[in-house]
Design brief:
Number of strands: 4
Number of domains: 1
Shape: globular
Radius of gyration: 21 Å
Largest sheet: 2 strands, antiparallel
CATH topology: Growth Hormone, Chain: A
Distance between the termini: 22 Å
Number of helices: 19
Order of helices and strands: HHHHHHHHEEHHHHHHHHHHEEH
Helix content: over 70%
């Protein structure tokens, strides 16, 4: 069972890894780079609604694994339409492309919570500890994300031939998927694979009385929310989930265009880092894969209060290192920012999902996972990412820059990047201070 669930996460996050970190550069090349914040805020806009609704539907119908497959299949179809549009339009129209992306996310974002609900349910059904088993399963999602990133970073399609290259100044360097719509086709194909695999998973077993008499089936959405927010500790935790949710989308949306913009400087134009931003970013996911093994141990020994605080501190360090780094003598800072990402992501997101699974009522696990997505990737990411986009756009602007004789000019996000990164670091530190003062669980270690 653990092996099957590990493969599920490998494919699940492979879908996202095909485009998420390189999407900003593609949008810039398509002429709508100034709207990057809105595309990453779209993750939040959609997460406000669909994850919690699908999670509640999973609780009612008792079939999260089937809903997971249906959502992946529908999302893959929409992403295929986006790819066709991107291939036939060198300049993207926001009013056409953005609604399509919202529709894709409406079906893809619920798969995060549904995959968690399915996994936690099948682990419990098989007699495994969720706290001990989940991190070792979730790590394969990171492996899948990294594998997809590496593929789109290196792969190109030219004259009917699939090839691979790491050289920015090569003849095919500018054709690599990280710069064009082919990343969307990869995402669509992976979505179909995810759908097929989800349909092969075992069904969760529920007794007849559980499926017909469960109080969660009769509860209204309003009552379910009241129950979750009725406990002060959970309410405060979910409030901080909102505040910390913005950090991840800032990272996903702006790091790759930031690293690529160094190609516009003569001293960095031929550097490996600036020409392979997606691959450099993948160090973050490799760090995530290593650090995820620390989540269960840290939660058991130190509790959620300590673990979450360390995650917020790691976000601040990541942003500061990005602000001071460059592909030359500051390369170690860029690499360091990728390393601390593993702690930042796992000690906030993964630890949060494990914690909410433990404290949620037994008949509301699916709704609780969806609610956390709503608070983090929904409310927090939506308003935070739009605000962050305004900050970045104040200091940085897309410009057509000649970067190589072979590849020609490229759209690069040029500007004084140090100011946005320092503002984001200060924000993370402010949230950390509030967390230490306001979140005080009844017992030091909530997670068993």
């Amino acid at each position: 069972m653990k092996a099957r669930l590990s493969l599920l996460y490998f494919i699940q996050f492979g879908v996202w890894g095909c485009y998420l970190t390189s999407f900003g550069q593609f949008l810039g090349s398509g002429g709508i780079g100034g709207r990057i914040a809105w595309f990453y805020a779209a993750i939040g806009l959609v997460s406000i609604i669909t994850p919690s609704l699908f999670g509640r539907l999973a609780d009612r119908k008792r079939c999260p694994e089937r809903l997971l497959g249906m959502c992946h299949l529908t999302g893959a179809i929409v992403m295929f339409v986006m790819w066709r549009y991107g291939m036939t339009h060198s300049q993207l129209e926001f009013r056409v492309f953005y609604p399509l992306y919202l529709l894709f996310l409406a079906f893809y974002m619920p798969t995060m919570a549904l995959a968690n609900t399915t996994t936690f349910g099948l682990l419990t059904q098989s007699g495994h500890s969720t706290v001990s088993s989940f991190p070792t399963i979730r790590i394969w999602g990171t492996v899948g994300f990294v594998a997809a990133m590496w593929f789109v970073n290196c792969a190109y399609w030219h004259d009917g031939t699939l090839g691979f290259s790491l050289a920015e100044d090569s003849e095919s360097g500018h054709l690599r998927f990280q710069y064009n719509a082919m990343q969307l086709l990869c995402c669509s194909i992976m979505g179909v694979v995810a759908a097929i695999y989800s349909f092969t998973l075992p069904s969760l077993n529920h007794s007849r009385s559980a499926s017909t008499d469960s109080s969660s089936v009769r509860l209204s959405l309003k009552d379910s929310i009241k129950i979750m927010f009725g406990r002060k500790e959970i309410a405060i935790f979910l409030g901080f989930v909102v505040l910390s949710g913005v950090c991840l989308q800032i990272s996903n949306g702006f790091v790759t265009p930031f690293i690529t913009h160094f190609s516009g400087f003569a001293e960095y134009s031929d550097s490996f880092a600036s020409g392979n931003a997606t691959m450099l970013f993948s160090l973050s996911q490799i760090s995530e894969a290593v650090c995820i093994l620390l989540v269960g141990v840290s939660l058991k020994r130190r509790g959620i209060r300590f673990v979450y605080a360390v995650g917020l501190l790691a976000w601040a360090l990541r942003f500061l290192m990005l602000g001071e780094g460059n592909p030359g003598n500051g390369l170690w800072l860029l690499v360091g920012s990728m390393v601390v990402y593993g702690v930042a992501f796992n000690f906030i997101t993964i630890a949060g999902h494990v914690y909410i699974q433990q404290v949620a009522p037994s008949d509301m696990k699916g709704f609780a996972q969806g609610l956390m997505m709503f608070m983090s990737n929904g409310v927090g990411a939506t308003f935070g990412t739009i605000a962050a986009g305004s900050i970045v756009n104040h200091w940085c602007h897309w410009k057509l820059i000649g970067v190589s004789a072979s590849g020609g000019p490229m759209q690069l996000f040029m500007g004084d990047w140090i100011y946005p990164w320092c503002i984001f670091a200060a924000y993370s530190l402010a949230v950390l201070i509030l967390w230490l003062f306001l979140f005080k669980p009844h017992i030091r270690n909530n997670v068993k």
